[in-house]
């Protein structure tokens, strides 16, 4: 059985023992409802670090939509069983009152890369992410933090955060794990109806086609418009954005010499799906 720690004091005490013994600590922050995407991060941490902690915390501060927070899947027993297959050394699963006790008033607030796209659609989201990641790194004494490219903008936000605050943590970005039909694995996928699930891969297919067309010389706008039309025709209720951006700053980019990323968010079956790919 992998130990499940509930308090910051316990987590700290264990991490201190590891650090004292000269062991490196790899941390994989998650919100639980684990799937193979999360496990790939944990497996990579297992290969690269002496000790691995997976944190499971559904962070209320990064949800701008109370319904989404309420409906977020919570499957701790199943998560623990999956993490035992890696295996990780500890699961850190504090409650909200442990992370945000009475009197908590500090927010890590970020501009720049945290503002467009997800930052624009979900006000306060990245401040919530930056705050909790700062806290989790502090609580676990992390040497390395593992994050998925699935949440590309989040990964760029965390890279910037660590640089700006001189945190002694190496941020490792890990490849997006997909279902065989291309759909990026996500804890929210279970909320799709069986019919929605058959349509969901169109998101990845549409942005992949657009990226290919752009590389072949088609105009960005035309390619993106076609991708949005394909998704609407497939049954997506709403395409929130499909954007070609500078891969690091997330600002609009028409400079093919810089790494660029196509990022998209769209609603299907009342579920918000996001994905991104290099262009
Ligand atoms: P979440 O539990 O959704 O907050 O995700 C926790 C971490 O897992 C984040 O760093 C995500 O980017 C990463 N992640 C989620 N889905 C995937 C995926 N399909 N492939 C790779 N990483 C993922």
User: What structural category characterises the helix and strand content?
Assistant: alpha/beta
Main β-sheet description: 6 strands, parallel
Would you give the CATH topology of the largest domain? Rossmann fold
Beta strands, count? 9
Number of helices: 11
Strand content: 15-25%
Q: What is the averaged pLDDT score?
A: 97
Hetero groups: adenosine monophosphate
What's the alpha carbon Rg, rounded to whole Å?
19 Å
Helix and strand pattern: EHEHEHHEHHHEHEHHHEEE
Q: What coarse outline follows from CA principal-axis ratios? A: globular
Q: In order across it, which strands form the biggest sheet?
A: 1-4-3-2-5-6
So, the CATH homologous superfamily of the largest domain? HUPs
End-to-end distance? 43 Å
């Amino acid at each position: 059985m992998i130990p499940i720690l509930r308090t910051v004091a316990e987590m700290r005490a264990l991490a201190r023992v590891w650090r004292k013994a000269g062991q490196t600590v790899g941390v994989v922050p998650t919100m639980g409802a684990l799937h193979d995407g999360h496990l790939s991060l944990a497996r990579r941490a297992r290969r690269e670090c002496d000790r691995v902690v997976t944190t499971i915390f559904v962070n209320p501060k990064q949800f701008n939509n109370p319904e989404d927070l309420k409906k977020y899947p919570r499957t701790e027993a199943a998560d623990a069983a999956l993490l035992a297959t890696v295996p990780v050394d500890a699961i850190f699963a504090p409650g909200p009152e442990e992370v945000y006790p009475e009197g908590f008033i500090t927010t890590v607030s970020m501009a720049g890369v945290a503002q467009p796209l997800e930052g624009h659609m979900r006000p306060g989201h990245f401040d919530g992410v930056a705050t909790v990641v700062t806290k989790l790194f502090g609580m676990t004494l992390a040497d390395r933090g593992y994050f998925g490219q699935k949440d590309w903008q989040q990964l760029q936000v965390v890279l910037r955060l660590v640089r700006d605050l001189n945190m002694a943590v190496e941020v490792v970005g890990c490849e997006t794990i997909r279902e065989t039909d291309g759909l990026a694995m996500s804890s929210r996928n279970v909320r799709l109806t069986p019919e929605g699930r058959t349509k969901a891969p169109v998101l990845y297919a549409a942005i992949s086609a657009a990226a290919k067309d752009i590389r072949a010389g088609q105009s960005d706008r035309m390619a993106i418009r076609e991708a949005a039309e394909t998704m609407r025709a497939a049954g997506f209720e709403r395409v929130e954005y499909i954007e070609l951006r500078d891969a690091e700053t997330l600002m609009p980019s028409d400079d093919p010499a810089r790494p660029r990323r196509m990022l998209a968010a769209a609603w299907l079956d009342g579920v918000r799906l996001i994905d991104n790919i290099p262009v």
